Amino acid sequence: MKWTHVGWLLAGLLTASASLRAADVTLTVNGKVVARPCTVSTVNATVELGDLYT
After folding, report:
1. What are the pLDDT digits (tens) for 17-50?
2. Which of 5, 25, 3 lies closest to 13 in space, CA to CA?
3. Residue 49's pLDDT is what?
4. How far apart are CA 32 and CA 24, in angstroms?
5. Helix, strand, or coil here: 46?
6. Residues 6+ apart with CB under 8 A from 48
7. Which of 9, 28, 29, 30 has the most C-beta neighbours closer than 10 Å?
């Protein structure tokens, strides 16, 4: 195994271990997906997702 592969592996492990410790996450989704000639008028909405587990 080349040293560059070991470096990438180490970086991946460090990233994974840091992400496992994250407790509070805010997910914000903005945008509109519509088929073309449709016109959709929307307002801002807040959706409670509750507790998400992986």
Report:
1. 555 555 677 777 777 766 677 666 777 777 787 8
2. 5
3. 77
4. 26
5. coil
6. none
7. 9
Angle, vertex CA 27, rays to CA 44 and CA 46, nearest 5: 25
**How confident is residue 1, by pLDDT bands cut at 50, 70 and 90?**
very low
The answer to whether residues 40 and 34 touch, using CB atoms and an 8 Å cutoff, is yes
CA dist 40 → 4, 11, 14, 20, 33 (Å) = 50, 44, 44, 39, 9
Distance of alpha carbon 43 from alpha carbon 49, whole angstroms:
19
Tokens standing for residue 32: 């509109």
Task: Give the contacts of 31 (CB within 8 A, at least 6 positions apart).
Answer: none
Instruction: Give the tokens for residue 49.
Output: 């997702």
